[in-house]
Amino acid sequence: MRLPGLLCVAMLDITIAYKVLEVYPQSRLVRITCEAPKLPQPITYSLLASRGILVAKKVVHNSSPALFNINITLKSSPDLLTYFCQAASNSITYGPSTRLQMYWELWTKPVSQLQANFTLQDGDLGPTVELSCLASSGSPPITYRLIGNDGRVYAQQKPLHGQPASFSLPLTRMSGWFRCQAENRVGVQNSPRTLLPPAQLLLTLTGELSLMRTVVTAGSLISIASIGSGMLGWTRL
Ligand SMILES: *[C@@H]1O[C@H](CO)[C@@H](O)[C@H](O)[C@H]1NC(C)=O
Ligand SMILES: *[C@@H]1O[C@H](CO)[C@@H](O)[C@H](O)[C@H]1NC(C)=O
């Protein structure tokens, strides 16, 4: 069944997104991406600030998005940090895109909704737990730490804005309670603590090794996904 109305709307879709490229003490270098993949080329993209002020224009001759690098200083008012895109093709202007509001994103967003996934993997060097941590938002960029029960920091990562941190815990060398901590200047969150090695694995390690082999290699992955609930359920992937 054809849905011409929906197709038409999809064709005119202009997306706007951004990424923090560099963090300076008093400013942020931000890349704003405007994209209207369905429009005939060449496409003239305009980046506009809140009240329709033209910030920059770019002509794109292929299907790539238009990239605008902007240096945003701390002095900028929130108003000036609202952006949207328009795209012109064959003398017709499309858009505007949805509004991108960056002020709070860039300057003062405490860490929120930290998610930590512990995934058991059977590697060449024996069982390893891969810990993946990601907060849904937080700005300035978040530092993630792997912390043991005694408060000891085992590892620390500062991935790119919006990217998860991943830590590898070889079970032959690491055991005890672990948690992931996400921290930026304006906030901190901790995941629930998790006991490693997991009880199920301990049982099989001390008991039937063959059983563990079966369990671990069958899907080669077992994960504790429902970590947020505090109930550690093992899921075979
Ligand atoms: C952005 O501003 C910082 C200083 O706040 C400066 O060091 C940096 O070179 C600027 N980057 C660009 C691309 O203009
Ligand atoms: C954790 O697992 C859930 C469910 O599989 C997934 O949606 C989420 O993206 C994962 N988060 C991280 C930080 O790996």
UniProtKB/TrEMBL annotation:
Keyword list, A-Z: Glycoprotein, Signal
Signal peptide interval: 1-17
Any GO BP: mature B cell differentiation involved in immune response
Occurrences of domain IL-40-like Ig (ranges): 14-106, 110-200
Protein name (database record): RIKEN cDNA 6030468B19 gene
